[in-house]
Design brief:
CATH topology: Rossmann fold
Largest sheet: 7 strands, mixed
Number of strands: 7
Order of helices and strands: HEHEHEEHEHEHE
Shape: globular
Number of domains: 1
Radius of gyration: 16 Å
Structural class: alpha/beta
CATH superfamily: Vaccinia Virus protein VP39
Strand order of the largest sheet: 3-2-1-4-5-7-6
Strand content: 15-25%
Distance between the termini: 34 Å
Length: 199
């Protein structure tokens, strides 16, 4: 279910001073991107934890993005930028700049006729090729078994090789920053699936 528009949405969106623009970042640090940043917990905590890495959050829905922007704005971090819109509409100046893409708890689009909307469909993987600076590198987390199986096959079919895979991430000894959905689903007993791939 899509969330209702927060009362402050327009004010927050209009006052944001860290939208993605051609200036990118005032440093030459690595750039990582989260596509589908949701309410921003993962993006914010990663930027706080790794101040020498730049992070871009992409969120299609402005109502959700406004929640993330309001949260992030309190910290005045120099290593975060956000883009509100479909990932396929990312501007060309970000092409060949990204070292790693995170896909956290993406919409599973469970019906077969909607599979082209999944962020791990070959059409999206082909677009991501334009974003990567050198080798393609993706980390994905989900609670959805069907999306996980689809994504793993999609990655392999597209030429990625699997670096790490887990059907129960929280039992692994990995440096894991949780998303808001991850906390919610794990708290209900769902196993969190994880896959890291490179090409």
């Amino acid at each position: 279910m899509r969330m209702r528009n927060p009362k402050y949405k327009d004010e927050v969106l209009n006052s944001c001073d860290f939208y993605l623009d051609e200036n990118l970042f005032n440093n030459h640090h690595e750039i990582r991107m989260e596509i589908g940043m949701g309410k921003g917990d993962f993006l914010l905590n990663m930027a706080l934890k790794y101040p020498d890495i730049n992070f871009i959050g992409v969120e299609k829905y402005s109502s959700v993005a406004s929640v993330a922007i309001k949260k992030i704005a309190e910290y005045h971090l120099p290593n975060i930028r956000v883009f509100v819109g479909d990932a396929l509409n990312l501007p060309m100046f970000i092409f060949n700049q990204v070292s790693l893409i995170y896909l956290n708890f993406s919409d599973p689009w469970p019906k077969a006729r909607h599979e082209k909307r999944r962020l791990t469909h070959a059409n999206y993987l082909q677009f991501y090729d334009k974003l990567f600076k050198s080798k393609a590198h993706i980390i994905m987390k989900t609670d959805n078994d069907d999306l996980f199986a689809f994504s793993e096959q999609s990655f392999v079919d597209y030429g990625y090789h699997i670096i790490k895979k887990s059907y129960d991430l929280h039992r692994e000894n990995l440096d894991n920053v949780e998303t808001e959905y991850e906390k919610k689903f794990a708290g209900k007993g769902y196993l969190i699936k994880y896959i890291e791939v490179e090409k």
